Amino acid sequence: MTIQQLLKTAPVTTLLLISFIGLFTMQVLSGVDANNPSTEALLKWGANALPYTMDNEPWRLASSAFLHIGLMHLLFNGFAMYFFGQIAEPMFGSAKFLALFLLAAIGGNLLNNYVTWQSLLDGTGQPGLSAGASGGIMGIGAALLIAALFKISVNGMVLNLKSLIIIMGINLVYGFAVPGIDNAGHIGGAVTGLIIALAFAVAYRQRLAITLQNTSSGVQDIYRTTYINSSSATGYSTQASAPVPRFENEADFVNNSSFNHDSAVNLPINNHASLNHSKVNEQQTTKSTLIWQWLPWLVMLLISVGFVWWWQDIHQQILQMLAVIE
Fold first, then answer.
1. pLDDT given at position 323
2. Tens of pLDDT along 105-120?
């Protein structure tokens, strides 16, 4: 897929890739080592570090998702974003895809800081720093797993659940096998993505059910309306002002070629009542559809509120500990 095709199909994915590469290029041009950047350089460019992030620089929870520690780190995450993004963004929509990535990245960084803080309290760890889009990418991958499980299609194509499980498994195993990998960030991002994707999947299923039900009702209304209108075409109508033909005997009644026996049986049905009923159903369908459309945004809002509370909780614990030490 060319850059032009990717920009048209997945504009947010394209912009994220450009931002990753652009930020890395700016680092290198400013003198940062392309393969082994220093701790000071990473902190300067927005890496996630417990003493800074959980003190008064919470913006590092998001900025670190665009920063990468070396060229290989950038290439690995760039390829994963390219692979997942061109599928996930058309499926979830650009705005929701971006929110999913950011929330998954923040969730991963928060879990990393929580684990680091607990290890400091236990005396088994020490402060470190983390950077990279891995948490957000793991969240996107987890969301695609849910999409495959619920058989959500993209342009008529259903994702291969087995392939996605293998890819996600390799990433998690690699993280635990290789030292220095932010496993907490991967897991936190994946869990965040799973929760958000469940809201997507439930909303998708409900909207699909409403659409199918509405389509079925619409077909029934079409047949019923056509059936009723056929009586008007033969000179019969449910309106009182319409002329009613008279027959001298039963033979004339039966043999009249323009008479529709089926229409006569259904004369009592009221077209206006049917139309009013259809309007009510349409309003109810629209309201239900809007509710399910907003469900993913509501879930993401609740997750955002939960993240704010989580950050404040760790922040207060750190302040209390510092006060005790002083």
1. 87
2. 999 999 999 999 999 9
Do residues 196 and 206 lie in contact, with contact meaning Cβ atoms separated by under 8 Å? no
Mean pLDDT of the chain: 78
Token pair belonging to 131: 């950077």
Average pLDDT (59-69) is: 96
Exposure class string for 100-118: b at 16+ Cβ within 10 A, else e: bbbbbbbbbbbbbbbbbbe
Backbone angles phi and psi of 152, in degrees to 5: -80, 130
3-class DSSP state for residue 246?
Answer: coil
| Burial bucket for residue 77 (CB in 10 Å: 0-12, 13-18, 19+) | buried
Q: DSSP H helical segments within the chain, as ranges?
A: 3-9, 11-29, 39-44, 50-53, 60-63, 71-92, 94-122, 134-149, 161-177, 183-233, 250-255, 261-265, 271-325
The tokens for 322 are 């510092």
Contact between 50 and 117 (Cβ < 8 Å): yes
- Residue 153 phi, psi (nearest 5): -100, 155
> pTM for the full model?
0.76
Q: How confident is the model at residue 261 (pLDDT cuts 50, 70, 90)?
A: very low
Q: How confident is the model over 118-141, as pLDDT tens digits?
A: 999 888 877 789 999 999 999 999
d(CA 316, CA 290): 39
How do strand 157-158 and strand 129-130 relate by DSSP bridges?
A: unpaired
Secondary structure letter of residue 150 according to DSSP: T
